[in-house]
Specification:
Elements: H1 2-7, E1 11-13, E2 18-21, E3 27-29, H2 30-38, H3 43-49, E4 50-53, H4 57-62, H5 79-84, E5 92-95, E6 110-113, E7 117-125, E8 132-140, H6 159-167
Antiparallel strand pairs: 1-2, 2-3, 4-5, 5-6, 7-8
Length: 173
Amino acid sequence: MKLKQQIENTIEYSSADTYSAGLRGNHLKAEVLAEWRASAVNDDITKLNVIYLSGTDPYEYLLFALPRCERRNDGRLRDKWLNRYEHCDRGGWWCSGIDVLTGEPAVWGQFKPKFPYRYIKKRHNNDFKGSGTKREPKTIKYEPPRKVPTEIYALRITLNIWEQIIAVPRSLI
Protein backbone atom coordinates (compact mmCIF):
# COMPACT_ATOMS: atom_id res chain seq x y z
CA MET A 1 0.00 0.00 0.00
CA LYS A 2 2.87 2.38 0.79
CA LEU A 3 4.30 1.97 -2.74
CA LYS A 4 0.91 2.68 -4.30
CA GLN A 5 0.70 5.93 -2.29
CA GLN A 6 4.15 6.92 -3.56
CA ILE A 7 3.18 6.10 -7.14
CA GLU A 8 -0.05 8.07 -6.92
CA ASN A 9 1.73 11.12 -5.50
CA THR A 10 0.81 14.08 -7.64
CA ILE A 11 2.97 16.73 -9.22
CA GLU A 12 2.11 20.36 -8.52
CA TYR A 13 3.22 22.97 -11.05
CA SER A 14 4.37 26.23 -9.47
CA SER A 15 5.44 28.25 -12.52
CA ALA A 16 6.41 27.93 -16.17
CA ASP A 17 10.08 27.25 -15.44
CA THR A 18 10.00 25.14 -12.27
CA TYR A 19 7.88 22.39 -10.80
CA SER A 20 7.42 21.07 -7.32
CA ALA A 21 7.09 17.33 -6.76
CA GLY A 22 4.76 16.59 -3.88
CA LEU A 23 7.04 13.75 -2.78
CA ARG A 24 10.01 16.06 -2.18
CA GLY A 25 8.78 19.63 -2.23
CA ASN A 26 11.83 20.87 -4.16
CA HIS A 27 11.95 22.79 -7.41
CA LEU A 28 13.43 21.64 -10.70
CA LYS A 29 14.66 24.10 -13.29
CA ALA A 30 13.42 23.94 -16.87
CA GLU A 31 16.99 23.39 -18.13
CA VAL A 32 17.23 20.18 -16.09
CA LEU A 33 13.89 18.94 -17.36
CA ALA A 34 15.03 19.71 -20.93
CA GLU A 35 18.25 17.72 -20.38
CA TRP A 36 16.28 14.66 -19.28
CA ARG A 37 13.82 15.08 -22.16
CA ALA A 38 16.79 15.07 -24.55
CA SER A 39 17.59 11.62 -23.11
CA ALA A 40 14.02 10.50 -23.88
CA VAL A 41 13.03 10.17 -20.21
CA ASN A 42 9.34 10.64 -19.45
CA ASP A 43 8.69 13.97 -17.69
CA ASP A 44 6.82 12.32 -14.84
CA ILE A 45 9.75 10.01 -14.10
CA THR A 46 12.13 12.97 -14.11
CA LYS A 47 9.88 15.03 -11.87
CA LEU A 48 9.52 12.23 -9.33
CA ASN A 49 13.22 11.38 -9.11
CA VAL A 50 15.29 14.49 -9.85
CA ILE A 51 15.69 17.59 -7.71
CA TYR A 52 17.74 20.73 -8.19
CA LEU A 53 20.35 21.52 -5.53
CA SER A 54 22.59 24.54 -5.07
CA GLY A 55 24.57 26.34 -2.39
CA THR A 56 25.46 24.01 0.48
CA ASP A 57 22.62 21.54 -0.22
CA PRO A 58 24.78 19.23 -2.39
CA TYR A 59 27.11 18.65 0.60
CA GLU A 60 24.23 17.14 2.57
CA TYR A 61 23.59 14.62 -0.22
CA LEU A 62 27.21 13.85 -1.09
CA LEU A 63 29.08 13.91 2.22
CA PHE A 64 26.61 12.63 4.81
CA ALA A 65 28.48 9.36 5.35
CA LEU A 66 31.91 10.81 6.05
CA PRO A 67 33.32 9.69 9.39
CA ARG A 68 33.32 12.14 12.28
CA CYS A 69 37.07 12.67 11.94
CA GLU A 70 36.38 14.44 8.61
CA ARG A 71 34.66 17.25 10.51
CA ARG A 72 36.09 19.89 12.77
CA ASN A 73 35.16 20.18 16.45
CA ASP A 74 32.36 22.61 15.54
CA GLY A 75 30.87 20.03 13.11
CA ARG A 76 31.85 21.83 9.91
CA LEU A 77 33.38 19.78 7.10
CA ARG A 78 37.13 19.97 6.81
CA ASP A 79 38.52 22.36 4.21
CA LYS A 80 39.74 19.54 1.95
CA TRP A 81 36.12 18.44 1.38
CA LEU A 82 34.82 21.96 0.94
CA ASN A 83 37.55 22.65 -1.60
CA ARG A 84 37.03 19.36 -3.45
CA TYR A 85 33.27 19.95 -3.81
CA GLU A 86 33.19 23.74 -4.22
CA HIS A 87 32.10 23.31 -7.86
CA CYS A 88 28.81 21.90 -6.55
CA ASP A 89 27.87 25.23 -4.92
CA ARG A 90 26.81 26.60 -8.31
CA GLY A 91 24.05 24.03 -8.64
CA GLY A 92 23.12 20.86 -10.42
CA TRP A 93 20.63 18.04 -10.24
CA TRP A 94 20.39 15.07 -7.89
CA CYS A 95 18.71 11.83 -8.92
CA SER A 96 17.63 9.07 -6.57
CA GLY A 97 14.70 6.70 -6.44
CA ILE A 98 13.46 4.27 -3.84
CA ASP A 99 15.17 1.66 -1.70
CA VAL A 100 13.94 -1.64 -3.18
CA LEU A 101 14.12 -3.38 0.20
CA THR A 102 12.06 -0.87 2.17
CA GLY A 103 10.07 1.10 -0.42
CA GLU A 104 11.30 4.29 1.26
CA PRO A 105 13.15 7.07 -0.58
CA ALA A 106 16.73 5.99 -1.34
CA VAL A 107 19.62 7.74 0.36
CA TRP A 108 22.00 6.86 -2.47
CA GLY A 109 21.88 8.76 -5.73
CA GLN A 110 24.10 10.86 -7.96
CA PHE A 111 24.63 14.57 -8.37
CA LYS A 112 25.40 16.12 -11.76
CA PRO A 113 26.82 19.60 -11.15
CA LYS A 114 26.40 22.38 -13.72
CA PHE A 115 30.17 22.71 -13.71
CA PRO A 116 31.86 19.29 -13.38
CA TYR A 117 34.96 18.69 -11.32
CA ARG A 118 38.12 18.80 -13.42
CA TYR A 119 41.57 17.65 -12.47
CA ILE A 120 44.84 16.54 -14.06
CA LYS A 121 45.51 12.84 -13.83
CA LYS A 122 49.12 11.79 -13.93
CA ARG A 123 49.67 8.66 -15.96
CA HIS A 124 52.99 6.90 -16.26
CA ASN A 125 54.07 6.38 -19.84
CA ASN A 126 55.55 2.87 -20.13
CA ASP A 127 56.09 2.65 -23.87
CA PHE A 128 59.45 1.98 -25.55
CA LYS A 129 59.77 5.45 -27.11
CA GLY A 130 60.25 7.22 -23.85
CA SER A 131 59.37 7.34 -20.24
CA GLY A 132 57.94 9.87 -17.91
CA THR A 133 54.59 11.08 -16.78
CA LYS A 134 51.73 12.08 -19.03
CA ARG A 135 49.25 14.62 -17.74
CA GLU A 136 45.69 13.98 -18.85
CA PRO A 137 42.77 16.27 -18.03
CA LYS A 138 39.89 14.36 -16.46
CA THR A 139 36.32 15.38 -15.76
CA ILE A 140 33.95 13.86 -13.21
CA LYS A 141 30.44 14.52 -14.51
CA TYR A 142 28.50 12.58 -11.88
CA GLU A 143 29.23 12.68 -8.16
CA PRO A 144 28.01 9.81 -5.95
CA PRO A 145 28.01 10.10 -2.14
CA ARG A 146 31.44 9.53 -0.59
CA LYS A 147 32.04 6.42 1.51
CA VAL A 148 28.71 4.85 0.48
CA PRO A 149 28.48 1.62 -1.56
CA THR A 150 26.97 2.03 -5.02
CA GLU A 151 23.32 1.05 -5.28
CA ILE A 152 20.89 0.57 -8.13
CA TYR A 153 18.56 3.22 -9.42
CA ALA A 154 15.01 2.06 -8.69
CA LEU A 155 13.17 5.11 -9.94
CA ARG A 156 9.72 6.17 -8.80
CA ILE A 157 7.10 5.90 -11.51
CA THR A 158 3.48 6.94 -11.85
CA LEU A 159 0.66 4.45 -11.76
CA ASN A 160 -0.03 5.22 -15.42
CA ILE A 161 3.54 4.30 -16.42
CA TRP A 162 3.38 1.13 -14.31
CA GLU A 163 0.20 0.10 -16.14
CA GLN A 164 1.92 0.72 -19.49
CA ILE A 165 4.86 -1.46 -18.45
CA ILE A 166 2.76 -4.41 -17.34
CA ALA A 167 0.67 -4.15 -20.52
CA VAL A 168 3.72 -4.91 -22.72
CA PRO A 169 3.60 -8.52 -23.91
CA ARG A 170 6.32 -10.63 -22.31
CA SER A 171 7.64 -11.61 -25.74
CA LEU A 172 8.71 -7.98 -26.30
CA ILE A 173 10.62 -7.67 -23.03
